[in-house]
Amino acid sequence: MHSVFVTGLLPWIDARRLLGPGEWTFEARTARTELVTHAAADLAARLHNVALGGSPITAEFRPALPRPAVRAARTTDARRRRDTSPGFTRPGVRLDEEGRFSLTPEALALELGRRFSGRLVVDATAGAGGNSIGFARGGCRVVAIEQSAARLADARHNARVYGVEGAIEFLHGDALALAPKRAHEDAILFLDPPWGVDWPRAGLGVADLPLLDAALRAGIDRGYHTLVLKLPPSFRASELDGGRPEAVYGFAPGDTRRVKFLLVTRPALR
Ligand SMILES: C[S@@+](CC[C@H](N)C(=O)[O-])C[C@H]1O[C@@H](n2cnc3c(N)ncnc32)[C@H](O)[C@@H]1O
């Protein structure tokens, strides 16, 4: 058996889900339990280099884990990661490279759509339509803004594949110019700024995401009801005054205990 001591757990990350099985006791930002070697090594592999909400998660094991167990757990974890929550699941969708790597998993986008059912959602960075389609399928009216004409055409095509083209208005252009024109006191402004493939896993903030930085400086959400941001797991949520952060986990075997992204919701500027 190993005594396990985990630190860096922010109150809103759903630590039980992250940590997995075990008789955990929680205190402030720490958790403790006892685990057999293979379970402890699995946890060590999953938490390796993880930071959530800008807070690095560290795990200490007493006695220390045997190296072969750690190596085996890393190999298992790498294999498991291949089975992650899928993007679009219907055949016939179109995606360029950026559209593919930035696509929100279909089931998570749908869940978010259901949360805002009946509302008008302005998706300021529609990409190939992952979130816009999820919002429309969840019962929202949607305005999809995208600065890449090709990707917006993919989003329209993909919306047709999902039978929701009619629920989405597609606007080609710069969100900084177009989103303020669609402001309404009942509408949600959703922004999923480009993260890049190599976003800093150890922690990043507003200044690292140029579109988010520009949008916040410009007060892009003025006149909306709520601003909803989709951000990398390691994003320092404390930088967003008045924002309510939430960790969104995957649901496939490879990511059910992995935070896929943060959602930060805050009242829009008046
Ligand atoms: C992270 S992706 C969005 C992915 C989308 N949420 C999905 O699930 O399919 C960000 C998108 O923002 C677009 N973008 C970047 N700057 C923009 C701007 N100023 N105005 C509108 N779109 C922009 C990029 O072209 C990219 O397609």
Keywords:
single chain, 270 residues, alpha/beta, Alpha-Beta Plaits, Rossmann fold, seven-stranded mixed sheet, four-stranded antiparallel sheet, 24% strand, globular, binds S-adenosylmethionine
What does this structure look like?
With 270 residues, this protein is an alpha/beta fold. It folds into two domains: 2-80, Alpha-Beta Plaits, CATH 3.30.70; 97-267, Vaccinia Virus protein VP39 (Rossmann fold), CATH 3.40.50.150. The chain contains nine helices and 13 strands. It has helices at residues 15-19, 37-47, 67-80, 97-101, 106-115, 130-137, 149-161, 175-178, 210-218, and strands at 2-7, 25-27, 30-35, 51-52, 55-56, 58-62, 120-123, 141-146, 168-172, 188-191, 226-231, 244-249, 259-267. The strands form three sheets. It has a seven-stranded mixed beta sheet with strand order 9-8-7-10-11-13-12, covered by helices on one side. Helix 9 links the parallel strand 10 and strand 11 (226-231). Helix 2 (37-47) crosses helix 3 and helix 5 (106-115) packs across helix 6. The protein is globular and about 60 Å long. It starts with a strand and ends with a strand. The chain binds S-adenosylmethionine. S-adenosylmethionine binds at residues 98, 102-104, 125, 127-131, 145-148, 151, 174-176, 192, 194, 211. S-adenosylmethionine (SAM) binds next to helix 6, strand 8 and helix 8.
